[in-house]
């Protein structure tokens, strides 16, 4: 073996490349370094820098004005009037105001970064250790340098206009949320209280259940096993849109289903709220108020298509999946002398989404 190793070493030492054989030479890769810095017009001309700064804070103040306009348009064209022209103008001008406010902030921020902030290239070496006093001091210095390069601390007009624009951009959203809250009316002085408003619907004792939207009364004998029927109070079909049709329907809509009586597991205080396996629940999801309208016959589950909350019809419409916080309110029902399904009373709890004031 020793003789063979010596022969191999001698062969390696005596080997030379043939004249036609190219041999690659591994030299270190040349570092091209950073390209020469090209000064911008704003770097060379103070007047151009002033113009750029003026443009940036003008855009930010334009955003403030657009946000104020969005709130003003919301009040000038009230959707509560119910007129189509007001609803159309409200959507148009409020949307334009919000769009312009956000667009002005975006354009101003981009112009600020490209024309005003320092655009010099910097190299930050990576360190093997961290947490030392020198490292902490370097981090503080980095923030100070970033503040100096961006001009956020020095250029007060840009800083103040940006803060004002961002703060004002939130105001239209706050104003729009006001429209979601119940409001007092001469007919309903307590209408501003959501507990009061959502605790009272059109349903009354003896009021017939009717098909949605035609308003035809429903006989118990017509509800087949496994069916799901969309229901409204019978008098609702006679209301016009100017008489509050949509508002009343939004609270009173019901989904009617029929199971085998032995499949139902009602609570003790709701034993007489069904009729021969027929149950009625509010269609308004207890999460954010979407219509719960998808019924699975085999599992007896109701599904909200918005956020996939699921309710178990056989067990009081209890929540079995999803973000909904409570079961769907149940409408107590019975039949009248003519065999029509009627309500025994209104809902005994507020319909719709859960909220803090609900008891």
UniProtKB/TrEMBL annotation:
Residues that span the membrane, as ranges: 59-77, 92-112
Keywords: 2Fe-2S, Cell membrane, Disulfide bond, Electron transport, Iron, Iron-sulfur, Membrane, Metal-binding, Oxidoreductase, Respiratory chain, Transmembrane, Transmembrane helix, Transport
Family matches, as Gene3D superfamilies: Rieske [2Fe-2S] iron-sulphur domain
KW Membrane (keyword) present: yes
InterPro entries from the UniProt entry: QcrA_N, Rieske_2Fe-2S, Rieske_2Fe-2S_sf, Rieske_Fe-S_prot
Record domain Rieske: where: 251-342
PROSITE patterns: RIESKE
Localization per record: Cell membrane
Membrane topology, record value: Multi-pass membrane protein
Function of the molecule: Iron-sulfur subunit of the cytochrome bc1 complex, an essential component of the respiratory electron transport chain required for ATP synthesis. The bc1 complex catalyzes the oxidation of menaquinol and the reduction of cytochrome c in the respiratory chain. The bc1 complex operates through a Q-cycle mechanism that couples electron transfer to generation of the proton gradient that drives ATP synthesis.
Family: Belongs to the Rieske iron-sulfur protein family.
Record's protein name: Cytochrome bc1 complex Rieske iron-sulfur subunit
Organism of origin: Microbacterium aoyamense
Lineage: Bacteria, Bacillati, Actinomycetota, Actinomycetes, Micrococcales
């Amino acid at each position: 073996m020793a003789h063979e190793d010596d022969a191999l070493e001698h062969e390696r030492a005596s080997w030379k490349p043939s004249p036609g054989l190219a041999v690659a030479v591994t030299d270190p890769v040349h570092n091209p370094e950073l390209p020469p810095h090209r000064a911008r017009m704003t770097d060379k001309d103070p007047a151009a820098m002033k113009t750029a700064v003026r443009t940036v804070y003008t855009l930010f103040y334009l955003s403030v004005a657009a946000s104020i306009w969005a709130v003003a348009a919301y009040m000038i064209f009230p959707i509560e009037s119910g007129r189509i022209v007001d609803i159309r103008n409200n959507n148009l001008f409020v949307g334009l105001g919000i769009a312009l406010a956000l667009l002005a902030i975006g354009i101003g921020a981009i112009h600020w970064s490209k024309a005003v902030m320092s655009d010099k290239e910097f190299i930050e070496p990576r360190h093997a250790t961290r947490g030392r006093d020198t490292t902490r001091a370097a981090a503080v210095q980095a923030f100070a340098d970033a503040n100096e390069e961006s001009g956020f601390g020095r250029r007060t007009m840009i800083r103040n206009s940006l803060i004002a624009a961002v703060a004002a951009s939130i105001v239209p959203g706050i104003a729009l949320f006001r429209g979601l809250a119940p409001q007092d009316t001469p007919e309903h002085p307590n209408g501003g209280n959501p507990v009061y408003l959502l605790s009272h619907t059109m349903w009354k004792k003896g009021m017939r259940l009717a098909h949605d939207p035609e308003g035809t009364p429903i006989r118990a004998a017509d509800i087949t096993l496994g069916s799901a029927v969309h229901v409204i109070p019978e008098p609702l079909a006679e209301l016009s849109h100017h008489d509050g049709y949509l508002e009343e329907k939004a609270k009173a809509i019901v989904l009617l289903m029929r199971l085998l009586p032995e499949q139902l597991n009602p609570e003790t205080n709701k034993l007489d709220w069904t009729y021969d396996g027929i149950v009625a629940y509010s269609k308004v999801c207890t999460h954010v108020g979407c219509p719960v309208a998808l019924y699975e016959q085999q599992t007896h589950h109701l599904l909200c298509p918005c956020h996939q909350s699921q309710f178990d019809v056989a067990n009081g419409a209890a929540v079995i999946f999803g973000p909904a916080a409570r079961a769907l309110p149940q409408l107590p029902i019975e039949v009248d002398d003519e065999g029509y399904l009627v309500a025994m009373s209104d809902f005994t709890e507020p319909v719709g989404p859960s909220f803090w004031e609900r008891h």
